[in-house]
Amino acid sequence: MERAGITPCPFSYEVKSTMRVGFYQYEPLFGDVAKNLDLVTARLEQAEADLIVLPELFASGYQFVSQEETHRLAEPVPDGQTVRRLIDVATRRQMHIVAGLPEQSGLRCYNSAVIVGPSGFLGCYRKTHLFYEETLFFTPGDTGFQVWDIGAAKIGVMICFDWYYPEAARSLALQGADIICHPSNLVLPNCPDSMPVRCLENRVFAITCNRIGSEARGGKDRLTYIGSSEIVTPKGVIQYRASRNGEDFAVLDIDPTEARNKQLNRYNDLLRDRRGSLYQM
Length: 281
Known about the structure:
Layout: E1 19-25, H1 33-45, E2 51-53, H2 67-73, H3 81-93, E3 96-105, E4 108-117, E5 120-126, H4 134-137, E6 147-149, E7 154-157, H5 166-174, E8 179-183, H6 191-202, E9 205-209, E10 214-215, E11 223-224, E12 230-232, E13 238-241, E14 248-254
Helix pairs in contact: 1-3, 5-6
């Protein structure tokens, strides 16, 4: 369905109540950053949206075979070509974009996601929980979970395997996130049916943007990505889910204010009723 300054901040809202939000599920070509950027930015140029989420490592591809390769494809943030291209589109199209990329910072590489908007670069999140061979090529993230106020909503970011840790989504909800943006390269089958639980227990929207296709590089076992990108409501309803293997650019209308009511009934409020002193962390 084709039809979509700022630092981490705890609370302050209201500009408009409805937003056009979505994702672009597609198959990147490993290592061909320029071609992937051309494809994605061409699609974004056609979108009427306030917020678009792109996959994890959307322009580089995922299955690295060496640290040298990782360093070759990683980019500085915010001065690399990928962030510059995204800022250009976001500025001209007046939208916010959350997108995954390999980040170069000194001698370290991070599996990161950037947040850009009409005013430029807003921030960067570094993946906290690395999955499988990511542990060979990336440094565990050190940014912590943050929330950005983009005017119509507050957004938080987690990347792929972070969903396995309920504390990730809860941390974002406690900071006031209305929408969790979730760039992903999912290969395990559980996430699409589990994200509604994350939304339900925190009363937030989530936009999970996965990729499609497969990679089998350097004699490694083939990784097959499961697609199924989705937009989920604070009541755990899957508002839209893409197919497992088809390209999909989806944009829907949501009302982010729905995520600000944490009441289940007149006696129970999900966040107010937490008993933090009794939880063993």
